[in-house]
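We treat protein structure as text, and this decision shapes the records that our systems exchange. Such a record has a labelled line for the sequence and another for the backbone structure tokens. The record that follows is passed on verbatim for readers who wish to inspect the format:
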Amino acid sequence: MKRSILVTGGDGQLGASLLGLPAVEGFELVAPGLDALDFTRPDTIDAVMTGTSWAAVINGAAHTAVDRAEQEPSLAWMINAAAPAQIARHCAALGVPMVQVSTDYVFSGDKDGAYIETDAPGPLGVYGASKAAVIMLTKRMALKLAPDQVMVSAIAPGAFPSDMNVAARDQGDAIAKTIPSGRVGVDEDMAGAAIYLASKAGDYVSGAVVVVDGGVTLVNASASMAD
């Protein structure tokens, strides 16, 4: 009998990529539609989380309209922070791993040098603040649940073409020249990291923010140390 992995935001960039991957033996990816799982309706979260014996949860849902978040902070906070916290509580009760997705908007941009995943957040806007809350939630839940063998980690994507990363989308060739791997990210890169963290292979990884950026962070960090 196959075990089910819940994928939220199945119609988004990460969710759609996950659903497009080849099937993993023994597992199936399940992405409920908005009518069944709506992050603005806590009752639907409770219903989905208690209605199936999930093997893991990959949270790909988010309020990603950065500028609009400033005009609707309550909605952004509900989708990006409150709803994931609610799901995390269910994961804790079920004893299953949870994977979050972060963003570089959690940082202020004022650091003299490159940011790394262990730097303290300093968001400047509502969107960044709501995602920074998810990072703090990830670390707190990981620390609390590790003794129960429940792993909680996050992904920090680099240059992936999207409406949020217009430079990678519209100037991919130029951006690729600044990346050690020589290319911008593709959906499968992020999806693969999510599957790894949610799978048995990631059983000893918890509280981590896994950077998926083709090596940019390492190069920038090395340059900062040289200076």
Summary: The radius of gyration is 17 Å. The longest helix spans residues 73-94.
